[in-house]
Specification:
- GO terms for molecular function: serine-type endopeptidase activity.
- It comes from Tetraodon nigroviridis (Spotted green pufferfish).
- The protein has helices spanning 95-98, 130-137, 205-212; strands spanning 4-5, 10-13, 30-32, 45-47, 49-54, 68-72, 100-106, 121-127, 145-149, 167-171, 177-185, 196-200.
- The protein has 215 residues and is mostly beta strands.
- The protein folds into 2 domains: 4-83 and 204-212, Thrombin, subunit H; 102-203, Trypsin-like serine proteases (Thrombin, subunit H, Beta Barrel).
- A hairpin with a 4-residue loop joins strand 1 and strand 2 (10-13).
Length: 215
Amino acid sequence: CGATLIDTCWVLTSAHCFKRYGNATKQYKVRVGDYHSLVPEEYEEEYAIDQILLHPNYNSHSNDYDLALVRLLPGVLGHIRQVLPVCLPVKRERVLKQASNCYITGWGDTGSSSYVFMTLQQASLSLLPRRHCEQHFHGTFTSRMLCAGSTHPERRVDSCRGDSGGPLVCERPGGGWVVYGVTSWGHACRTQQSPGVYTKVSAFSLWIQKVIGRT
């Protein structure tokens, strides 16, 4: 799974990333500053996990509240200046009104095969209107979700297997990159008829701030 650094000791990811192996901290490591998954790089560091917190309302059947916070061992990131936390959205920030220039990143496959990339991939895509998402996914799409994809029939862009937990970031007007979504689920990869679904980070602003101690 992917994850996003949001504070010196915290990363944001999907709760369903811990569905298979549980949330025992010794089962996982967090690799920060990675580009090539098999080649050690200058600014790449790997850290142990101190705590894994799934959102208390996470539903593994509906994928609602699909969010988790992972605490790295305290103070481990103080010396890495090349890796910086992304900005968080404010509560009830109107994403569709403000977000532009959006990207997803990850090591997942492209949807045309089961191939998983060794190097970090990125792709630009568009946030889709809420009505479009609700009509497509019917009762499974909630107010705590975003959906995104390509609006061009010849350019199909989507997250896929292996991208779970990774970020959907957009450039905020006036500058600054904000993590508006966390890769969650979808019905298919790279099909115009089925966009990807992302956990809407702004819906969880208060929970995130409370957990990481910014309140």
